[in-house]
From TrEMBL:
Molecular function via GO: nucleic acid binding
Annotated Tc1-like transposase DDE domain residues: 33-138
Official protein name in the record: Tc1-like transposase DDE domain-containing protein
PANTHER family, per the entry: TRANSPOSASE
InterPro entries: RNaseH_sf, Tc1-like_DDE_dom
Top-rank lineage group of the source organism: Eukaryota
C-alpha cells in the first residue's frame, strides 16, 4: 500500500522538467544544493516490524511497551557539512518545518545559480506548504 501511494504521487512531467533544469543550470561542483530531511526517535523506533518463525508459528516480538519521549531532528546538509540543524521534543508539522526553513536556512541561501541556492526535499506531506513555497520564492 505504501509503495502504491508513493507511486501515485510521482509526477513524471515535473521530474523531467527538474532533470532538464539541473542539466542546463548545474555548475558541476554540487555546492548549489542543500539537502533537507527530518527524522524522529522514541523508545519504540528500534523495534523490528518483521520476524522469523517456523511455518505455522508466530514470530516472537520483544519490545518495550511505553514509547517514552519523542524527539525529532531536521537538518540541512551540503557536501561540506551541515548548514543548519534543530532538535525538538515532539514532531514537526507544516508550521514548524516552515519556521526552520525561513528562519535558519533561507538567511544562509543565495540567489540561483550561486552556492547554496537550491533546496532539495523529499515528498513528505509537511513539505507541501504554500507558505513555505512563497517564502522560498520571495527569498
Amino acid at each position: 500500500k505504501i509503495l502504491h501511494k508513493i507511486a501515485a504521487e510521482r509526477d513524471e512531467e515535473r521530474c523531467g522538467d527538474f532533470q532538464e533544469q539541473i542539466i542546463a543550470n548545474f555548475q558541476g561542483d554540487s555546492r548549489e544544493f542543500m539537502f533537507v530531511d527530518e527524522t524522529s526517535k522514541d523508545e519504540h523506533t528500534w523495534a523490528c516490524h518483521y520476524g522469523r518463525a517456523m511455518s505455522g508459528a508466530h514470530a516472537p516480538l520483544s519490545d518495550v511497551f511505553i514509547r517514552g519521549d519523542w524527539y525529532s531532528l531536521v537538518a540541512a546538509m551540503m557536501v561540506d557539512g551541515y548548514i543548519a540543524a534543530e532538535v525538538m521534543e515532539g514532531s514537526y508539522d507544516h508550521d514548524l518545518f516552515c519556521d526552520f526553513i525561513t528562519q535558519q536556512l533561507l538567511p544562509a541561501m543565495n540567489p540561483f545559480p550561486a552556492e547554496r541556492s537550491v533546496i532539495v526535499l523529499d515528498n513528505c506531506c509537511i513539505h507541501h506548504n504554500e507558505d513555505l513555497e512563497a517564502a522560498v520564492q520571495e527569498a
